[in-house]
Design brief:
Helix 1 links the parallel strand 1 and strand 2. The radius of gyration is 23 Å and the shape is globular. The strands form four sheets. The chain has a nine-stranded mixed beta sheet, sandwiched between helices. Strands 14-15-17-16 form a four-stranded mixed beta sheet, with no helix packed on it. A two-stranded antiparallel ribbon has the order 5-12. By secondary structure, it is an alpha/beta fold. The protein has three domains: 256 residues, Spore Coat Polysaccharide Biosynthesis Protein SpsA, Chain A (Alpha-Beta Complex); 74 residues, no CATH class; 32 residues, no CATH class. The protein contains 14 helices and 17 strands.
Length: 409
């Protein structure tokens, strides 16, 4: 007999984006629900009264609809926190910001996942969104394949997520005690882009919580939400880089507990060493940190060994960067000169002046992730029609500005 559905409302946050709200409401209205579901639309105060009108006129045939129109401006962080606090009346909540779009099966997925993980204290939340991009180096990310429908990351999801009552309450208790503490001086290895997130970011504090409490988010392999990245509080211009193919077929999900999964990543989208050891037993002889993307701050790495794509002197072992995902080159012992196992002090920090090894390092990395970019015939196609050196120079500057996080020290 199928377990009774948990009481989990769909909560949509809105501010001043009319078209965005119309689009996400259209999306959730097309989804499949096998029992009544409450819809809550939370609107932060703005001068755009059209947003409230859209919310009020929207027909929700699947259950109760509730509109929370805040009379004072909360700001993004407090708005999200207030929505999370709604969980006190439910078994959990699904939170959707207005620039998202969901799969017709998003609610079925969350029901099944929430039932499986609700008593697991190592889980901080359940994502609808499936990452395929590492925002720290601005490069693609591919999770290692296994037989399950989920993997795990020590990175909070903000592009469609569910918190069960326990998951949110654990965070809320921590947040009350720790929101005013200084984290810059902590010895945590934190991605540089996350450290620069503004104080208005609720996700920044949730990230600190996950690091401090050693918790992880559950991520689906096939995305059940996609992100339009409409201009808003933290986005100036619209981006398409975070769009994901959505699940458009019904399926039976196969879940796995965090402790039993081989596919677990840290906040840099790097394999946890203990999980890679399960697939490469010979690595157990080394106490190492993973850094295949080459962006972890060397000064904060305390382990004696490092597996990285950085330029290195005297590597103990070296592997190619050809198979995908990148870890496969280590697991299958594909020899090469791109990924290295060495003592930490033998690796170099990125420099502003590039020697031969440094340039080869960048070439290998971009050739691996963007092979078409370096094909001469394709590069000629890109450059065709540009008549002056100034135009060519401008195009190259624009191209490399996409990787500014990676090239900066």
């Amino acid at each position: 007999m199928k377990e009774k559905n948990l009481k989990i409302p769909v909560v949509i946050t809105a501010y001043n984006r009319v078209h965005s709200l119309q689009r996400i409401l259209s999306s959730v209205a097309k989804a499949i629900y096998d029992s009544p579901v409450e819809l809550i639309i939370s609107i932060d105060k703005s001068d755009n009264h059209e947003v409230k009108r859209i919310a009020e006129e929207f027909n929700w045939p699947y259950g109760e609809k509730r509109i929370i129109a805040h009379k004072m401006s909360l700001g993004l962080r407090e708005h999200i926190i207030s929505c999370g606090d709604l969980v006190k009346s439910y078994d959990g909540i699904i939170l959707l910001e207005d620039d998202l779009y969901v799969s017709p099966y998003f609610y079925e997925y969350i029901q099944d996942a929430a039932k499986f993980y609700r008593n697991d204290k190592t889980i901080a939340g359940i994502s609808l969104y499936s990452h395929n991009f590492n925002e720290t180096p601005y490069l693609p990310f591919t999770p290692f394949p296994d037989s399950f429908d989920v993997f795990f990351m020590q990175l909070p999801s903000s592009w469609g997520q569910c918190w069960t009552k326990n998951q949110w309450n654990f965070f809320r208790s921590w947040y009350i005690k720790n929101q005013h503490k200084e984290y810059r001086n902590k010895n945590w290895i934190i991605p540089e882009d996350i450290a620069r997130w503004p104080e208005s970011s609720w996700k920044k504090y949730f990230f600190f919580y996950m690091i401090d409490q050693n918790k992880f988010f559950v991520y689906p392999r096939t995305s059940l939400s996609s992100n339009f990245s409409d201009p808003g509080t933290h986005i100036i211009t619209r981006k398409h880089i975070f769009q994901r193919p959505l699940q458009f077929h019904k399926k039976q999900y196969k879940f796995v507990l965090l402790e039993d999964s081989d596919v677990v990543y840290d906040a840099f989208c790097e394999f946890l060493p203990g999980r890679l050891n399960r697939l490469c037993k010979w690595l157990k002889d080394y106490d190492y940190e993973m850094d295949i993307y080459g962006v972890k701050p060397l000064e904060k790495i305390t382990r004696p060994y490092l597996i990285s794509s950085r330029p290195v002197n005297n590597p103990l072992m070296s592997f190619d960067l050809s198979m995908k995902p990148a870890e496969m080159n280590i697991i299958e012992s594909i020899e090469g000169n791109c990924i290295h196992l060495a003592e930490k002090e033998n690796f170099k920090e990125k420099e502003t002046r590039y020697d031969t090894k440094q340039l080869l390092y960048y070439y290998n990395l971009f050739d691996y992730h963007f092979p078409a970019l370096w094909e001469k015939k394709n590069l000629r196609k890109v450059l065709y029609g540009l008549k002056t050196k100034d135009l060519i120079k401008t195009m190259i500057e624009i191209m490399f500005s996409r990787f500014k996080n990676y090239f900066s020290k």
